Amino acid sequence: MTRKILTGLSSEAYEHPFDRKALASVQNMPGVSLLLKKINEYGIDRLLRLQSLGSEIRISPRNFPELHQTFVETCQILDVAPLPELYLFRGTGHIQTYIVGVEKPLVGINLDAMEWLGVDELLYVFGHEIARIKSKHMIYHQMAIVMPTLKNLLSSTTLGVGGLVAGGMELGLYNWRMMARFTADRAAMLACQDIDVATTTLMKLAGLPDEYLTAAVIEDFLVQAREFASNNFDSVDKVTKILSYTEPGLSWVVMRAGELLKWVDSGEYDNLIQQTNLKTPEELEEKEGKTLQEKEGWNFLTSW
After folding, report:
1. What Rg do the C-alpha atoms of the chain give, in angstroms?
2. Angle of helix 138-157 relative to helix 161-192, nearest 10 degrees?
3. How far apart are CA 190 and CA 180, in angstroms?
4. Is 200 exposed, middle or buried (0-12, 13-18, 19+ CB in 10 A)?
5. Which of 175, 191, 278, 293 is nearest to 232 (CA)?
6. Are 100 and 142 in contact (CB under 8 A)?
7. 58 φ/ψ angles, rounded to the nearest 5 degrees
8. Residue 277 region, left (φ>0) first, then alpha (ψ -120 to 50), else beta?
9. 85 - beta bridge partners?
């Protein structure tokens, strides 16, 4: 399959409207400048990089050529440069990837992902991580990663006041990280350029290996994803949503698949690939916001 190189691609062309709104909410929270300052003071960016450098295997064209080339292709398709470093870490029993580094980003992928995923599927998971760079959201993404530890540090150094500020910020960041996944999945779709590949990748992220991905299983998953996306979640109370977002073990792949399918079905994906009938970010936000909130009632934001 020949994939289109999306030279000049802007993240605004595919960002999910909930992502933009949730991030704006975080940026407007009191104390965000304090937290950003503390992250810089504590050298968090350098620490996270050192953890990867000191614990994981750096991927190169020599040691893992196919994995490295797939990563290079992902960055080329999404027009991301310079090329971040890529590291391989031990298996965890499930597919896992991450990205850290504001000034000099690096991507990590575990052994399970390398062994379970085909080349096309690797494009999807790499695209999902590279999206953080493309959207210039790394500082907030990294803040969310270290927030639990940072909250404890601020509580001990500011007589608990900083911890209270950070606690409210933490909930806002959990909300934003969930919404940012929708944008990252769209970038991942642009990287692999095949909805069938996106579907099987998400199913593998849910824990299903190749031998279980029969036609019937995939068809039922798609039905489930579309059913989930059509639900009205306005009746779910705030506490339930908070508990859902703060549970690190949940992948939310069915919800993510439903959102991705709606984007593809809308025609916006094809328009972006073909560079036709492209809408401005404001037009996209108005269109998608109305569709999601008025027709399906999908609105995790208004009750926060």
Report:
1. 19
2. 160
3. 16
4. buried
5. 293
6. yes
7. -75, 130
8. left
9. 106
> Which residue has 């299903």 as its token pair?
208
The tokens for 105 are 């980003």
- For the stretch 205-219, pLDDT in tens is 999 999 999 999 999
Q: How far is 9 from 191, CA to CA, in rounded Å?
A: 11
> pLDDT tens digits for 97-130?
999 999 899 999 999 999 999 999 999 999 999 9
Does residue 82 have a cis peptide bond before it, meaning omega lies within 30 degrees of 0? yes
**pTM of the predicted model, to two decimals?**
0.85
**Residue 82 is encoded by which pair of tokens?**
């310079």
- The residue written with tokens 């492209």 in the block is 278
Q: Pairing mode, if any, of strands 85-89 and 106-110? A: parallel
DSSP lists the bridge partners of residue 98 as 108
Measure the CA–CA gap between 19 and 212, rounded to whole angstroms: 33
The angle formed by the CA atoms of residues 71, 20 and 104, to the nearest 5 degrees, is 35
pLDDT score of 147: 77
